[in-house]
Amino acid sequence: MNRELLKDKKRIVVKIGSSTITHEATNNLNLIKMEKLVRVLADLSNQGKEVVVVSSGAVAVGRQAVGMKKRPTEVKEKQACAAVGQAKLMMVYQKLFSEYNQLTAQVLMTKYTMINDISRQNARATFEELLAMGVIPIVNENDTVSTDEVKIGDNDTLSAIVSALIGADLLILMSDIDGLYTDDPYKNPDAEFIDYVERITPKLESMGKDSASDVGTGGMATKISAAKIATDSGADMVIANGEDIRNISRIMQGEQIGTLFKAHKDEAFKLMDYLKTEQYSD
């Protein structure tokens, strides 16, 4: 696929992993990277692009704020950290975006938002209205109130679901890895980089490995799963390294960054078919 075509994408969902916006040693927010991120996203909006952000980091930020040294494992711990961290995270986002006169909105979702027909339609309508107003919605799972979110709670999948919900043209997953490899590059130095995926095959799915990151929840398996949802719904998807925030701009300029999964819109695609699988059912 000609990457130059990415320049013409209008509606873009950008997923930001915890490891992209926090310091590994402390779990504190990396304000320098967040400032760069906000500048890039605000500039996309200035270009007339419609931008939605799915941001991880709430649990990691909350964990640091309450002085929890180890990654929380119990539901109540995760929910408490999310409650503290989500407020702090949005405060920083709003402060930074305001410097560029860019309005943002917080959107917290659960699986029930998507499973219930009325709630799903209302969510879609809300996104449409926000984007028409030039607002950048910042989306996260509502970990504080939904115990089921712990079971399905990775923002790779959430970002793909949001992409399908709003009919996005492109999904960008900013992660702690350059893209898709034939094996885990952290463990196998001979792992080969894959820059383009025409179709997601069973062999490709078997390449999914857990991430080496300590703060995120989604490994490569969740990214491939997200790619299946995004590409079936008609969105191209790129996995790129969030270590350099400028990769977002480079992707939008058609540069050879990350792994590109080609969209192949399935006319029979129904988001509910994905949501009714065992992973998302009650």
UniProtKB/TrEMBL annotation:
<dbReference type="GO" id="GO:0004349">
    <property type="term" value="F:glutamate 5-kinase activity"/>
</dbReference>
<comment type="pathway">
    <text>Amino-acid biosynthesis; L-proline biosynthesis; L-glutamate 5-semialdehyde from L-glutamate: step 1/2.</text>
</comment>
<feature type="binding site">
    <location>
        <begin position="217"/>
        <end position="223"/>
    </location>
    <ligand>
        <name>ATP</name>
    </ligand>
</feature>
<dbReference type="GO" id="GO:0005829">
    <property type="term" value="C:cytosol"/>
</dbReference>
<dbReference type="InterPro" id="IPR005715">
    <property type="entry name" value="Glu_5kinase/COase_Synthase"/>
</dbReference>
<dbReference type="InterPro" id="IPR011529">
    <property type="entry name" value="Glu_5kinase"/>
</dbReference>
<feature type="binding site">
    <location>
        <position position="56"/>
    </location>
    <ligand>
        <name>substrate</name>
    </ligand>
</feature>
<feature type="binding site">
    <location>
        <position position="155"/>
    </location>
    <ligand>
        <name>substrate</name>
    </ligand>
</feature>
<feature type="domain" description="Aspartate/glutamate/uridylate kinase">
    <location>
        <begin position="10"/>
        <end position="241"/>
    </location>
</feature>
<keyword id="KW-0418">Kinase</keyword>
<dbReference type="InterPro" id="IPR001048">
    <property type="entry name" value="Asp/Glu/Uridylate_kinase"/>
</dbReference>
<keyword id="KW-0028">Amino-acid biosynthesis</keyword>
<keyword id="KW-0641">Proline biosynthesis</keyword>
<feature type="binding site">
    <location>
        <position position="143"/>
    </location>
    <ligand>
        <name>substrate</name>
    </ligand>
</feature>
<dbReference type="GO" id="GO:0055129">
    <property type="term" value="P:L-proline biosynthetic process"/>
</dbReference>
<comment type="function">
    <text>Catalyzes the transfer of a phosphate group to glutamate to form L-glutamate 5-phosphate.</text>
</comment>
<feature type="binding site">
    <location>
        <position position="15"/>
    </location>
    <ligand>
        <name>ATP</name>
    </ligand>
</feature>
<keyword id="KW-0067">ATP-binding</keyword>
<keyword id="KW-0808">Transferase</keyword>
<comment type="similarity">
    <text>Belongs to the glutamate 5-kinase family.</text>
</comment>
<dbReference type="GO" id="GO:0005524">
    <property type="term" value="F:ATP binding"/>
</dbReference>
<dbReference type="InterPro" id="IPR041739">
    <property type="entry name" value="G5K_ProB"/>
</dbReference>
<keyword id="KW-0963">Cytoplasm</keyword>
<keyword id="KW-0547">Nucleotide-binding</keyword>
<protein>
    <recommendedName>
        <fullName>Glutamate 5-kinase</fullName>
        <ecNumber>2.7.2.11</ecNumber>
    </recommendedName>
</protein>
<dbReference type="Pfam" id="PF00696">
    <property type="entry name" value="AA_kinase"/>
</dbReference>
<dbReference type="InterPro" id="IPR001057">
    <property type="entry name" value="Glu/AcGlu_kinase"/>
</dbReference>
<feature type="binding site">
    <location>
        <begin position="175"/>
        <end position="176"/>
    </location>
    <ligand>
        <name>ATP</name>
    </ligand>
</feature>
<dbReference type="InterPro" id="IPR036393">
    <property type="entry name" value="AceGlu_kinase-like_sf"/>
</dbReference>
<dbReference type="InterPro" id="IPR019797">
    <property type="entry name" value="Glutamate_5-kinase_CS"/>
</dbReference>
